Amino acid sequence: MGLSAEEIAQRSAQAMWARDDASKWLGMSLDAVGPGTATTSFTVEKHHTNGHDICHGGYIFTLADSAFAFACNSYNQLAVAQHNTISFLRPGKLGERLTAVAREVTRAGRSGLYDVTVSDAAGKVIAEFRGASRVIDGRHFEE
Q: Which of 107, 102, 111 lies closest to 134 in space, CA to CA?
């Protein structure tokens, strides 16, 4: 009997997380993963702030991009970004825990679309991100 979709998502995430030095360096955690979904988070520290003393948009983008990456790689197929967009709606503030929740919108052939909402601990939306993925050759683990 083969692995369940949930087990495949978990094993794919474990394989990716083991090599994801960028997300770890940022101080990010991988909080949840499932088929087509993922949640990442980090606390805004002083080194994440910009000249306005708010979280640098690049770090918010990275948080959302990592959630997107784990969501689109949850099928034991290697997937990379084709393009991504983000709209910043509120600032991320020093000391706040920001959480990115990715969900699959659709998959068709080798392409997929994913929406990611970045929120603060009170549930206020900080940013909305859309990622387009493309499956490439390879697997995260042997089934």
A: 111
Tokens linked to 61: 């983008």
Supply 124's token pair.
Answer: 């206020």
Helical axes 57-72 vs 5-19, angle rounded to 10°: 140
For the record, the structure tokens of 67 come out as: 């959630």
pLDDT tens column, 53-81: 999 999 999 999 999 999 999 999 999 99
Query: What residues are paired with 24 via a beta bridge?
Result: none
Q: What is the pLDDT of residues 80-96, one digit of tens each?
A: 999 999 999 999 999 99
Burial class of residue 70 in the structure, from the number of CB atoms within 10 Å of its CB (0-12 exposed, 13-18 middle, 19+ buried) = buried
pTM over 0.70, yes/no: yes
Query: Which tokens is 26 given?
Result: 């940022």
C-beta of residue 77 within 8 angstroms of C-beta of residue 15: no
Q: Which residues contact 1 (CB under 8 A, 6 or more apart)?
A: none
Q: How far apart are CA 33 and CA 7, in angstroms?
A: 10
3-state percent breakdown (helix, strand, coil) of the chain, nearest 5:
30, 40, 30
